[in-house]
UniProtKB/TrEMBL annotation:
Higher taxonomy: Bacteria, Pseudomonadati, Bacteroidota, Sphingobacteriia, Sphingobacteriales
Domain of life, per lineage: Bacteria
Pfam families linked to this entry: MlaD
Protein's name according to its UniProt entry: MlaD family protein
PANTHER family attached to this UniProt entry: INTERMEMBRANE PHOSPHOLIPID TRANSPORT SYSTEM BINDING PROTEIN MLAD, INTERMEMBRANE PHOSPHOLIPID TRANSPORT SYSTEM BINDING PROTEIN MLAD-RELATED
Bilayer-crossing regions: 12-30
Domain Mce/MlaD: 41-116
Keyword line: Membrane, Transmembrane, Transmembrane helix
């Protein structure tokens, strides 16, 4: 065999090997994209695809389940996406499953995530429409983050200005004064002492209230003893009656005083005779003098009797009893 024929054979074998590798590559790529094998369709409708393209992957519970087949605009707010799903996944997808658009990683390709339904629901059929959930995309997150950064920058600038004003204010000078710290400590101690006393007072007051509710003490007896309440009511009635009688007595006494004044002014009655008649006053004065002299004589006679041997024992016994009675009294 000539050298040319050997080269041709080598070239043909290389071409066949390359074609076989190319066909094998197409097969694996098609298998990954579900071009080959049995499949069925599901639909989902979104208001924004966020960059989803035909041929992007579809995941069911995080497992590769199919690809995006087509997208069609229903109206100005609704876009319908057709999903090509492997029939091997069909026994696991229920009609309450939810489709959402996500991302492979942080900045990867867009994908459709199908979240399994919780509960016992029928399985999906070919062409069924899944419920869709619109999620926040990366652009919206970045816009929100940008607005948040701007707000934080504004707050930081305002806080910086406020701190500068505070540093230059008299408040900081007041806080830097060491005497203020001592005064503040003293005030806090006084507040703590006052709080303790208030707590102690509240405890005592609570104890008093409990005693009153339990019928202890005078206040408890007044509030809980019905007999005491009745007696108190009766006493109040008696006080009212006594007050009325006192008022009547005051009126009568006022009339009596008026009558006495009239008698004194007109020279009538016994009082006028006693107070205004000089002769009668002299007789009364002489009578009082005689009584005083008689009392003095009586005292002398009694003193003589104390020293008489007949009555001396009696008076000594009376003095002892008086002394004993004074010692017993507190």
């Amino acid at each position: 065999m000539s050298k040319q024929s050997i080269n041709n054979l080598k070239l043909g074998a290389f071409i066949l090997t390359g074609l076989f590798a190319l066909i094998l590559s197409f097969y694996f790529i098609g298998k990954n994209q579900h071009i080959f094998g049995t499949k069925f369709k599901l639909r989902a409708r979104f208001t924004n695809l966020n960059g989803l393209l035909e041929g992007n992957n579809v995941l069911y519970a995080g497992i590769q389940a199919g690809t995006v087949s087509s997208m069609s605009l229903i109206n100005d707010t609704t876009i319908e996406v057709t999903l090509l799903i492997d029939k091997a996944i069909r026994p696991h997808i229920h009609q309450r499953a939810v489709a959402s658009i996500g991302t492979e990683g942080l900045m990867g390709n867009k994908i459709v995530n199908i979240t399994p339904a919780t509960g016992n629901f029928p399985l999906v059929n070919d062409g069924d429409l899944l419920s869709a959930r619109q999620v926040v995309n990366t652009d919206e997150m970045l816009q929100t983050l940008s607005r948040t950064n701007q707000n934080i920058a504004g707050i930081s600038e305002a806080l910086k200005i406020s701190v500068l004003h505070i540093n230059q204010s008299k408040l900081m000078a007041l806080l830097d004064d060491p005497s203020i710290g001592n005064s503040l400590k003293s005030a806090l101690k006084n507040i703590d002492r006052t709080a303790y006393q208030a707590s102690h007072f509240a405890g005592n007051l609570n104890k008093v209230v409990l005693d009153v509710r339990g019928g202890k003490g005078l206040a408890g007896a007044l509030l809980s003893d019905t007999g005491m309440t009745t007696n108190l009511r009766t006493a109040m009635i008696n006080i009212r009656q006594a007050t009325a009688k006192t008022q009547k007595m005051a009126v009568d006494l006022d009339g009596l005083v008026s009558q006495i004044n009239n008698d004194l002014a007109g020279g009538k009655g016994t009082l006028h005779l006693l107070l205004r008649d000089s002769t009668t006053a002299g007789h009364i004065r002489q009578s009082l003098k005689n009584i005083e002299q008689g009392t003095d004589g009586f005292n002398q006679n009694m003193e003589a009797l104390k020293h008489n041997f007949l009555f001396r024992g009696y008076f000594k016994d009376q003095a002892k009893k008086k002394t004993a009675s004074s010692a017993v009294k507190p």
